[in-house]
């Protein structure tokens, strides 16, 4: 259902509030550069520090500005099941094409608890749901066995896999279904993920390099991996630089450097260090973005 390069959208701020003007122009920039889809209010969109009202507003603005030009997968996850249901129902009502829902962080639920969390959300919505499996941030890892059981529910559509466990892509393809959407959430291993049979990526790097990321992904989907490798080589320094401090600090600085929005970020995250800025600048130059 969802293929290609989807941008995990950053959320621009100005004077402590969402900068709607920059956000709208940033969405247009992404679409004009050929990106395949957008994911508002994920981790890169600083969902942990947005109020519920801001969270919903960011989704509504994205949908309004995109005007169905590309699919929108709205971030609606929470470690509070009732809250995740509310956000998912809002995304569905607003017209999102799917919801991205992270495994419950901090609570550390069992596999049975994770199943029940997603089952409850499915029972209270009809929108396609992409499971976001990111053990590095949520401290829990949903197994393929649990995903296989969840895929029997009416609206579980696939996974954003941020484990960087490449052989798992192959196992997922075999153990689940060729209709189960396999999207990577790890930019640095996207090339290998696609080689093993993935369908696309939800990318941080595409915030600042949407043209390169979409061209790279088009080549992968066409099976032209030799040509895709050339673009991947250009992007690898960026994939590294954008994560040497907690995301989205580095990517917000890069967006500022490109004149796309301010680098403002909310506590407890802070503006990146001078050394990180230098590394990001070098990566931008390497990719011929500046």
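^ structure tokens above, recovered residues below v
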């Amino acid at each position: 259902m969802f293929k290609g390069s989807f941008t995990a959208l950053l959320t621009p701020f100005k004077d402590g509030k969402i900068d709607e003007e920059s956000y709208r122009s940033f969405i247009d920039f992404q679409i004009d550069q050929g990106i395949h889809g957008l994911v508002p209010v994920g981790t890169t969109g600083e969902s942990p520090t947005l109020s519920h009202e801001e969270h919903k507003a960011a989704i509504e603005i994205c949908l309004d500005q995109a005007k169905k030009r590309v699919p929108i997968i709205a971030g609606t996850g929470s470690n509070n099941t009732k809250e995740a249901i509310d956000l998912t129902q809002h995304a569905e009502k607003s017209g999102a094409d799917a919801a991205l829902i992270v495994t419950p962080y901090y609570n550390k639920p069992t596999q049975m608890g994770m199943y029940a969390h997603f089952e409850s959300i499915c029972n209270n919505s009809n929108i396609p749901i992409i499971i976001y499996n990111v053990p590095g941030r949520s401290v829990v890892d949903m197994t393929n066995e649990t995903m296989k059981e969840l895929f029997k529910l009416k609206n579980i559509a696939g996974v954003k896999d941020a484990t960087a466990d490449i052989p798992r892509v192959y196992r997922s393809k075999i153990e689940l279904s060729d209709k189960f959407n396999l999207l990577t959430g790890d930019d640095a291993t996207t090339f290998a993920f696609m080689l093993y049979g993935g369908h696309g990526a939800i990318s941080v790097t595409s915030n600042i390099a949407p043209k390169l990321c979409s061209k790279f992904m088009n080549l992968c989907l066409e099976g032209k991996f030799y040509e895709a490798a050339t673009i991947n080589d250009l992007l690898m320094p960026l994939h590294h630089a954008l994560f040497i401090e907690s995301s989205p600090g580095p990517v917000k600085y890069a967006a500022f450097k490109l004149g796309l929005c301010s680098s403002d970020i909310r506590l407890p995250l802070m503006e990146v260090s001078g050394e990180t800025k230098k590394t990001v600048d070098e990566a931008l130059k390497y990719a011929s973005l500046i």
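The chain has one domain: 4-234.
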